[in-house]
C-alpha cells in the first residue's frame, strides 16, 4: 500500500493558485492521515501542472466529471491545464483518502474532499468524491463526482437515451477544451 501512496504524492498539482507576483508562486501543502504504515503524505499544490505530474496516468487512461470526459493522456492534460485559465484560484482544502484493493495489482482510491474555487471574484465551495482506479501503479480511470453524486450516463439514469446525450455533451465539451489547450501540449516551463 505504501508504494502506491508514494507514487501519488503530486496528485493534486492540478489545482493552480495564481499570484500577482509571478516570481513568487504560492505553494500550499496538505497532509493526509492514513491508517497504514505511511501515516502522512504531502501533496503539492502549484501554480500549474507539470508534465511530470501526469506520469501516474496510463497512456489510455480516462478522466470524467460532470462537464467533460477525457480519453487518453493528452486530453487529460488539456482538462487540467485549462483549470488555471478558468479559475483565478483553485484548491482542495479538506480531504480524506480510502484505498480498497480490488485484486492483486488493482486498487480503487476514494478521495472525499472539499474544493474551493475563485471565479470572477466569487468564491465557490464544492464537495466532491474523486475515484481513482489504479492498475499496476498507474491510474486508468479518474472520476470526479460533484456533490458525491454518480455521473449521469446511460447506465445511471432511468432513460438510457438521456444518459447517452449527457455522455456526448461531455465528450463535445472535452474536444473543444482539448483544441483550445493546444491538444494537450505541455506549457512552456
Summarize the structure in short.
This protein is of the alpha+beta class and 189 residues long. It is built from 4 helices and 8 strands; from the N terminus they run αββββααββββα.
Question: If you had to describe this structure to a student in words, what would you say it looks like?
Answer:
- The protein is of the alpha+beta class and 189 residues long.
- It has one domain: Nuclear Transport Factor 2, Chain: A (Roll), CATH 3.10.450.
- It is 21% helix and 40% strand.
- The longest helix is centred in the C-terminal third of the chain and has 21 residues, at 160-180.
- The radius of gyration is 17 Å and the shape is globular.
Quaternary structure state of the chains depicted: single chain
Can you count the beta strands?
Answer: 8
The CATH topology: Nuclear Transport Factor 2, Chain: A
What's the overall geometry?
globular
- Strands ordered across the widest β-sheet: 4-3-8-7-6-5
Helix-strand topology string: HEEEEHHEEEEH
Spans of at least 5 consecutive residues with low confidence: 1-47
